[in-house]
Amino acid sequence: MVGIATKALRPTVIAPLVRGTRGHAVAVDPPYLPPTPSQQSTQSRPRYVDGDVRHDWRRSEIQKIFDAPLMESIYRAATVHRMHQDASRVQLCTLMNIKTGGCSEDCKYCSQSSSYKTPTKASRLVDIDPVIKAAKEAKANGSTRFCMGAAWRDLAGRKSGFEKILKMVSEVRGMGMEVCTTLGMLSPEQARRLKEAGLSAYNHNLDTSREFYPEVITSRTYDERLATIEAVREAGISVCSGGILGLGEQDEDRVGLIHEVSRLPQHPESFPVNTLVPIEGTPLENNDPVKVHTVLRTIATARIVMPKTIIRLAAGRHTFSETEQAMAFMAGANAIFTGEKMLTTPCSGWDEDKAMLGRWGLRGQRSFEDAESVATPMMTKEQQALHGVSY
After folding, report:
1. How far is residue 256 from each of residues 89, 247, 327, 355, measured CA to CA in Å?
2. What was the pLDDT predicted at 376?
3. 107 is an active site residue
4. Most buried by CB count within 10 Å: which residue of 42, 71, 167, 338?
5. Is residue 93 flagged as an active site residue?
6. Is 38 contained in some domain?
């Protein structure tokens, strides 16, 4: 056992011995304190039950969910999903790249980083008219959230660009759509101005666990990302924060990401689950594809841990079959990105996605609150004949 004291252990003692360690520090769960006899006598049900919205998850609890038999986890997640949300609804979202390439960040997965030679060429911030045109097209095709991404580290020195983006936000929100942006790090004042312009949500992914993060990004710290999330939340904007699978992380890192966001003062309004799309010229271009069972485990675990959060099946979805995507919906995913492209990576088109949802009896989700019945809609006789099904 020489030298074992110099290595930080995983949240459980057995995990490092079975899976191996990578040599980076790992957060350790606080000790579990069982309820006192007086507390037990007043409890009419177990301390926690599925469907409870909690912010005190222990990392080892989440790991047990992740490691459970997959089909049982999916059934459990599907049950939790129906406690808080309409499981027949899937939100269609469209993401537009409003400023491409030239980013000073060194994210090893990103084709827009100026640190790597990739096919992506840098461009200026687009004008407002093409954005409005794209948003109208997205709305006409059933998308109820329109997202805009700019390849920036932050907004420092971009006063005119920021003013233009505020105008974009206001115009898109005026169309009755949810509007989301991802612009890098934000100050509290910048978040406040985006809120005043009508921003619905701000995307700022943590990407992976705190422990594995330095293996992927060195130009921005984990705590800096959390500071932007705090500024967004304090401004009254919904937080959209998730991660990317396939960066070279282990299962414990996928659990670590979910654990991190589950302990925020408010769970993220949405949790994107991206799978790496390897880009030529980036350090991760030769990473192995993510297996579908890993995606399903991540979605099911996130759904159980964060019952009210929208789980967005995001980048890389086009690499999975329709049946695999249907399993993701069963596991608790209830939003997808659709349209012509996701920033610089491929995306399934509107017609293809609407046909897929129709075959599975799913329907689009409206913007903002949806007070419709949670009952799954029955197909008309014409629809049954078209799809070859019957009740």
Report:
1. 28, 14, 23, 36
2. 33
3. yes
4. 338
5. no
6. no
Domains: count for the chain? 1
Nearest-angstrom CA–CA distance, 9 and 27: 8
Say which of 10, 22, 93, 107 is annotated catalytic. Answer: 107
Asked about 240 being catalytic, the answer comes back as yes
Is residue 147 annotated as involved in ligand binding? yes
Domain that holds residue 292: 67-366
Would residue 18 count as lying in a domain? no
- Exactly one of 303, 312, 317, 347 is catalytic; which is it? 312
The reply to whether 103 sits in an annotated binding site is yes
Binding residue per annotation — 312?
yes
103 is catalytic: yes
Could you tell me the CATH number of the domain that includes residue 324?
3.20.20.70
Residue 286 domain flag: yes
Task: Give a yes or no: residue 1 inside a domain.
Answer: no
Residue 240 counted as an annotated binding residue: yes
Query: How many CA atoms, within 13 angstroms, populate the side-chain half-sphere of residue 140?
Result: 6
Q: Is the CA virtual torsion 6, 7, 12, 13 positive or negative?
A: negative
